[in-house]
């Protein structure tokens, strides 16, 4: 069975994994652990641990257990001040971290409970803070503040030295395809590739590198970005000519949805600029890869998973 490693975090990675897990692929999902909002922030402060929120989301996306267990894991104690709006899955992962001492020992226990095939790894075991540097040199601390920052962020780093989880480096070396997920470019994808040893391992690997592009821009982060612009930002951290392929949407999004996203969230569809991608020697895989779920625009998990599987079957490391 061929192996993929996919870097990401949050909802973007979770959505893609829902489709990828349906195919005969050995999946390793590498998750950023720097979320500092809501329940996760409280748990980080109380227990001095890396963020559990994105990892717990990915665990649920990869789960093959029945819906009652999924509903239980996602349940939040909204009426309790003591339990602070924590979800059951976040509390369980925190408890396991307390018992086992690190993600490497804690995640397999929850994976067994949730009937998960494949691996879920944190990019690091270190409890660090994400830092953004604006174009005018201002320092912004924390994922939430970076996301809300009105000024353009020119660089992402950490507030201290961070070491990659050893298993991540091992899985990079063994992968047949390396994928950078859709999701927040600055706070979900790039935090995985700020660590130098990760970038070195990726560059050393002969496996093709695929980027799954976002469907819409993100205000203050990728305003007016075309597909090629996303890749240029990734390669500021990875090095030029690292990305070999991009999977992007080429189908028109319904106008009423475009207007809704533009007015309510200041987001616009990402334009597929094939001419620029060709100049960058990047292979374009294009299709209708969006779905509308309860009025929300998302990647079509099944279609995206199928296209990734097709790419994987054609690759030779």
Which stretches are low in confidence, meaning pLDDT under 50 for 5 or more residues running? none
Instruction: Give the helix/strand class.
Output: alpha/beta
What is the first-to-last residue Cα distance? 14 Å
| SSE arrangement, N to C | EHEHHHHHEEEHEHEHHEHEHHEEEH
Largest sheet: 7 strands, parallel
**Widest β-sheet, arrangement of strands:** 3-2-1-7-8-9-10
Number of domains: 3
Mean pLDDT: 92
Shape: globular
What is the number of helices?
A: 14
Kindly report the name of the CATH homologous superfamily of the largest domain: CofD-like domains
CATH A-level architecture of the largest domain:
3-Layer(aba) Sandwich
User: What fold name stands as the CATH topology of the largest domain?
Assistant: Rossmann fold
Tell me the β content: 15-25%
Text of the CATH class of the largest domain: Alpha Beta
Summary?
The protein is an alpha/beta fold.
Task: Report on this structure.
The longest helix is centred in the C-terminal third of the chain and has 14 residues, at 301-314. With 317 residues, this protein is α/β, with parallel strands linked by helices. Strand 4 (130-134) and strand 5 (139-141) form a beta hairpin. The chain has three domains: 1-32 and 163-317, 3-Layer(aba) Sandwich (Rossmann fold); 35-120, no CATH class; 127-161, no CATH class. The model has no long low-confidence stretch (mean pLDDT 92). The chain has a seven-stranded parallel beta sheet, sandwiched between helices. It has a three-stranded antiparallel beta sheet with strand order 5-4-6. Strands 11-12 form a two-stranded antiparallel ribbon. Helix 1 (10-20) packs parallel to helix 3 (53-62), helix 2 runs parallel beside helix 5 (88-100) and helix 5 crosses helix 6. It contains 14 helices and twelve strands.
């Amino acid at each position: 069975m061929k192996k993929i490693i996919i870097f990401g975090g949050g909802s973007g990675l979770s959505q893609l994994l829902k489709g990828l897990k349906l195919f005969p692929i050995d999946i390793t999902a590498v998750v950023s652990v720097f979320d500092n909002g809501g329940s996760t922030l409280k748990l980080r402060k109380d227990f001095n641990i890396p963020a559990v929120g994105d990892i717990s989301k990915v665990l649920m996306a990869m789960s093959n257990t029945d819906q009652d267990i999924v509903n239980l894991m996602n349940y939040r104690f909204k009426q309790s001040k003591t339990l602070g709006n924590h979800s059951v899955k976040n509390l369980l992962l925190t408890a396991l971290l307390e018992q086992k001492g690190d993600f490497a020992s804690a995640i397999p226990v929850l994976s067994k409970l949730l009937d998960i095939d494949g691996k879920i790894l944190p990019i690091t075991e270190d409890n660090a803070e994400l830092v953004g540097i604006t174009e005018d040199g201002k320092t912004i601390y924390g994922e939430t503040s970076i996301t809300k920052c009105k000024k353009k962020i020119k660089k992402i780093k950490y507030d201290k030295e961070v070491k990659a989880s050893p298993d991540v480096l091992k899985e990079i070396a063994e992968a047949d395809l390396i994928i950078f997920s859709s999701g927040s470019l600055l706070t979900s994808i790039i935090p995985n590739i700020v660590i130098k040893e990760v970038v070195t391992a990726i560059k050393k690997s002969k496996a093709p590198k695929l980027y799954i592009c976002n469907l819409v821009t993100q205000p203050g982060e990728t305003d007016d970005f075309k597909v090629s612009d996303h890749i240029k930002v990734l390669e500021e951290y990875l090095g030029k000519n690292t990305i070999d392929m991009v999977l992007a949407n080429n189908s028109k999004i319904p106008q009423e949805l475009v207007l809704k996203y533009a007015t309510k969230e200041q987001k616009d569809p990402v334009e597929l600029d094939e001419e620029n991608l060709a100049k960058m020697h990047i292979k374009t895989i294009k299709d209708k890869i969006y779905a509308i779920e309860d009025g929300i625009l998302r990647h079509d998990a099944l279609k995206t998973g199928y296209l990734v599987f097709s790419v994987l079957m054609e690759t030779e490391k």
